[in-house]
Each structure stands twice: as structure tokens, then as C-alpha cells.
Design goal:
6 helices; 2 domains; 8 strands; Anti-sigma-K/W_factor; 4-stranded antiparallel β-sheet; RskA_C; membrane; alpha+beta; Immunoglobulin-like
């Protein structure tokens, strides 16, 4: 049977509407947001012309078109945030974290620093002093035994530690967490292993410490 283009379009629309919507797992969105945050972008054309090489060489790893990042984040939040499943007005913790990571990654003053994690893994700290916000992304982080959790800390110039959230190692992909609280210039971001639920002050030596500028 031959269908006109309009009839074919109608059939395709009806078939699409007949499929029950499936909400992707929160882990999928988190994984995508982590990849966005650590994926370098090509330098702008203006930075690649002769005479601008030094500027291009000093361009930050995370410089990227803000509109592209925001559009990608919006699409992810719309698709994976439960809109099709009726949960648009009941965001889950991972939804909030993903939105925070997208906003942080788009900051005009975004900076980054990397360090190895004691026991294995490589961590990247990204931060914005304008937003007073930071996030840690770790590749190769080992899972902890039952009863233990990873805890983030802000350490100021005097060494005072402020709790900034707990997290578990991701079973797949990059482990990441946007820190709770406000960051100040020069703060050190640390990670320790603590009992479940976290501690009011570090009880072990840090497995990671990265100082911001």
C-alpha cells in the first residue's frame, strides 16, 4: 500500500504515541553530566590564528560555548528528569546535582586542577569563585566496604574543615559530586573515608587534597 507523505507522517506519529514512555535511570543522567564536565572543547577560531597561539595555549581546558552546554543540560534534564513519567515537579537528588554540575561547568571563570587519589584513581576538581561552588570528579575510585562512605571537606587557610557532603563510588563511569556549602578562594578540597552518614570532623587522613587558587 502506497501512502502519501502526510499519511506516512500520521502513521509514524501514532506509532510513536503508542509506545509507553520509559524513564532513564538517574545514573544515566549523572554519567552524561560528568562526561560534559570533563570533556575538553576545541579552541575558538579566533584563538587559533597566527599571533594568538600564546592565548590559545593558556586557554582553560573547560572553555566551552555556554549555549551548547546549557542546551545539552536542558535536554538531559527534560528527558531523564521524569517529565514523561509525571515527575517533573518532584526532582530527585541526582536531578539537583546534575543541574548544579551543568551550571558550574558553564561558569565563565571555571578552573580545574587534578591529583591522584591515595589507593587508586585520578581526581579532577572544578570550581567557580563567582558561583562559590565546586565539584570533584574521580576516575577509578574503589568501592568501600559496608559501613563506610567517602566524605568531602572544605579546608580553609587555617586548616579548619567544613563538611561538604558524602558520596559512594560509582559502579560504572566517573564518580562525581558537587560539594555542599560555599567555597572561598584558596580553599583546599579534601576527601576522607568516614562511617556511614559522615562525621562532623575528619576521623582519617585524607585520600585526596586539592588546593584551589
Amino acid at each position: 500500500m502506497n501512502l502519501t507523505p502526510r499519511e506516512q507522517n500520521d502513521v509514524e506519529t501514532e506509532l510513536g504515541l503508542a509506545v509507553l514512555p520509559v524513564e532513564p535511570s538517574p545514573g544515566l543522567k549523572a554519567s552524561i553530566m560528568a562526561k560534559i564536565a570533563v570533556t575538553p572543547q576545541l579552541p575558538r577560531e579566533a584563538d587559533a590564528v597566527p599571533g594568538r597561539a600564546e592565548s590559545a595555549a593558556h586557554a582553560r581546558w573547560f572553555t566551552r560555548p555556554v549555549t551548547i552546554l546549557v542546551a545539552a543540560a536542558a535536554a538531559i534534564l527534560l528527558f531523564a528528569g521524569g517529565v514523561f513519567a509525571g515527575n517533573a515537579f518532584a526532582p530527585r537528588p541526582l536531578d539537583t546535582q546534575a543541574a548544579s554540575l551543568a551550571e558550574l561547568s558553564a561558569a565563565g571563570d571555571l578552573q580545574r586542577a587534578s591529583a591522584e587519589v591515595a589507593g587508586g584513581g585520578v581526581a579532577t576538581l572544578i570550581w567557580s569563585l563567582d558561583q562559590r561552588r565546586s565539584a570533584v570528579l574521580i576516575d577509578g575510585l574503589s568501592a568501600l566496604p559496608a559501613g563506610k562512605t567517602y566524605q568531602l571537606w572544605y579546608l580553609d587557610a587555617e586548616g579548619a574543615a567544613t563538611p561538604a557532603g558524602t558520596f559512594e563510588a560509582s559502579a560504572t563511569g566517573t564518580t562525581w559530586r558537587v560539594l555542599d556549602g560555599a567555597m572561598s578562594g584558596g580553599d583546599t578540597v579534601g576527601v576522607t573515608v568516614e562511617p556511614d552518614g559522615g562525621s562532623p570532623a575528619p576521623t582519617t587522613d585524607p585520600i585526596l587534597a586539592i588546593t584551589s587558587s
